[in-house]
Amino acid sequence: ESDFNPALFRQAFPYLQSSATSVYLDSAATALKPQVLIDSTLDFYQSAGSVHRSQYDAEQTALYEQARNLVAELINAPSPAAVIWTSGATQAINSVAHGLAHWLEPGDEIVISEADHHANFVTWSMLAQQCAARLIILPINDQWQIESAVLRQALSPRSKIVAFNMVSNVTGTEQPIAELINTVRQNAPQALILLDCAQAVAHLKLDIQALDADFYVFSAHKLYGPNGLGVLSGKPESLEKLTPLLYGGKMVDRVSKQQISFNPLPYRLEAGTPNIAAVIGFGTVLNWLGQYDLQQAEAYAVALAEQTKVRLQRYDHVRLFNSPQPSSIVCFVFDDIAVSDLSTLLSEQGIALRAGEHCAQPYLARLGQKSTLRLSFAPYNTSADVEAFFAALDRTLTLLRE
Ligand code: PMP
């Protein structure tokens, strides 16, 4: 029996109070923001100073480092020093790619998958070009998953990097991640593994010490946090291998005309004045989230999505791209109607959904589609949202099929 209270959760989001007619079904793109984030951001900008610079900024510095501790707890990082602030998942992947460029030799191999977001797909493609490495793009099966046997085949003594997502933003498919990591460790022990957790972080309990990858990345904005903030985490010894993407203040220890030495992690990878408001705001969000059983909240949102899939399946000419596991993402097309027509009319009726390529053109090619519609649910959604979606869909289909 769940004691998750969706009404209480929903109340925390001002958008859902002020915009009574809007049905927000695009949380996989970005989650709505709770009032505590807005309050915290306001507080920060009404105060003075930076962090880690002066005596008077001690209080802010404490909040800033507390947020790091909360992220370490959230994902069970080996230590707060293994939590590095970035501007988002995209920058975190780029930091790892640039940071490992020095380690790649011509002919080395980088393994990604056709299910990856452009943030992963393009970044590693460009690094492969830059380093004359070979890019290997793993195919996915009809359940949209990477098979261990396929991964094993792709590995070799030249495999240096294996990087893919844990949960897809297109279909919500969860990869058999522990098994895939195991396959890499057994067949290419020299390889470093990056997991794109941008979607996973809002849906799964991440325990990065239980998993055996090297790097994990995600963005705060998908977990009710602010824009412009992300996390790079992982094994300290792997993070130590990264050449900093950015150089500047606070990442250095001693600087003279003769010599420069760097600070230890996490600061070595955090040059410049950070996005302090975002970090402190995200800490506030994580504190607030702490009162909820996130697994129950997730089960509630997934149940809404699964009901939607069952109901959608009954329509003529519909095609769903379902994940093998229950998930909060509903990805679909109607074979007789253009995605853009549907999305235009649905959005005119207040349904906020995503239509297009979902920053994953190779994945769309695999699905045999130019674009799809995507509904993505969060625990602030309700069955009234599902009803509103189907009412709008029925009106739209009638109009378009007349
Ligand atoms: N990977 C996946 C799976 C994503 O869903 C996203 C966001 N859509 C990203 C990476 C990139 O995240 P961001 O744009 O916040 O850097």
From TrEMBL:
Transferase is among the record's keywords: yes
Organism: Testudinibacter aquarius
Family in the record: Belongs to the class-V pyridoxal-phosphate-dependent aminotransferase family. Csd subfamily.
GO terms classed as biological process: cysteine metabolic process
Catalyses which reaction(s): (sulfur carrier)-H + L-cysteine = (sulfur carrier)-SH + L-alanine
Keywords per UniProt: Aminotransferase, Pyridoxal phosphate, Transferase
Gene Ontology molecular function terms on file: cysteine desulfurase activity; pyridoxal phosphate binding; transaminase activity
Domain Aminotransferase class V residues, every copy: 23-389
Record's protein name: cysteine desulfurase
SUPFAM superfamilies recorded: PLP-dependent transferases (SSF53383)
Pfam family of the protein (one): Aminotran_5
The organism's place on the tree of life at top rank: Bacteria
Cofactor(s) recorded in Swiss-Prot or TrEMBL: pyridoxal 5'-phosphate
Residues annotated as signal peptide: none
Enzyme Commission number(s) from the entry: 2.8.1.7
